[in-house]
Structures are given as structure tokens and as C-alpha cells.
Amino acid sequence: MRNFIKGLTTLFNSTPGGSNYAFHTSIGGRLFYVKAPPGTSLSNGDYACFQILNDVDDDTFTENMVNVFLQFSLFSGNDSASDLTTIDSNLSIMIKDKTWPMDGATVVHSLRKQGDGPDIIYSDLEAGTEEYWLTTIDYEVLINRD
């Protein structure tokens, strides 16, 4: 799945000013695979993480078509959920019903399966309780082997 992750991050980092770039801008370029690195703080702006939910052999497609289930987790430290709504909309613009190339294959369809949230999350830290907004969005992506 290295090629899929590379293709997705290439799409995310597409030409500034393009329609796909709105998602990049809305999270300050902070898209992480699986989890945010240590030291990532919502005080520095919103961010997103993505992960592959199903087990797919790494770059060894045995079928012409492969389904990948992808989940995005969107995080915001703002006082209201309105920023998450914008981030979610920008994510949809970037990925929903889109195709994009990757090494050895092409994403031929991406379908939004479900969204959950936004929910307010309270975390207990040594310095006190921190609250932030979280929403998760799942996509089913169909990959066609070249």
C-alpha cells in the first residue's frame, strides 16, 4: 500500500490554488499517516490523520480491482465545530468521487461511506483538561491495477 499512500499524499500536496489544495490549506498542511507525531499540538492549528482500515497486501494486487477502506480523523482545537465542517467539506472536494494516479495503479472511484461527529473530546493532561473537536470520515476507494 506504499504506492497508495504516496498517491494520496501527492493528491493532498497538489498545486497550490487548485481545488484539491483547499483541504491542505484548511489543516495547515498537517496530514499524518495513522497518528500525529509526538509534540503535535492543536494550539498550532487543526490537523488530520488517515489510515487504511482493511488488510491489503503491500503492492501485490492479485486482482485487477482492489477495494481499500480509508478513514480520516479530523481534529480541531477551536471553540466550535464550524472549522471541522469546513475541513470535512474540503476533504470531500479533494477525494469524493475522484480518480487519481499512483505507481502501478489508478484510483478509479472513491465513495464516502460514513461520517461520525463532530464530537467534543475531553482529555485529561497533567496541566488540566483539554478539549478538542474530532470527526471521522470513512471512504471506500476502488483501485484498478494498470
Task: Write a brief structural summary.
The protein has helices spanning 2-12, 21-26, 82-95, and strands at 31-33, 47-52, 65-76, 100-102, 105-125, 128-145. The chain is α+β, with helices and mostly antiparallel strands. It has a single domain (2-145), classed as 2-Layer Sandwich (STM4215-like).
What features would you describe in this structure?
The chain is α+β, with helices and mostly antiparallel strands and 146 residues long. The protein has a single domain (2-145), classed as STM4215-like (2-Layer Sandwich), CATH 3.30.2000. The protein is 21% helix and 43% strand. The longest helix is centred in the middle third of the chain and has 14 residues, at 82-95. The mean pLDDT is 83.
Radius of gyration: 16 Å
CATH architecture: 2-Layer Sandwich
Topology as a string of helices (H) and strands (E): HHEEEHEEE
Our count of helices gives 3
The shape is globular
CATH top level class name: Alpha Beta
> How many domain units?
1
Give the strand tally: 6
Largest sheet: 6 strands, mixed
Structural class: alpha+beta
For the residues shown, what is the average pLDDT?
A: 83
User: Cα distance, first to last residue?
Assistant: 15 Å
Give the spatial strand order of the biggest sheet.
1-2-3-6-5-4
Considering DSSP H and I runs of 4 or more, what fraction of the residues is helical? 10-25%
The CATH topology corresponds to STM4215-like
- Name the poorly predicted regions: none
Report strand %. 35-45%
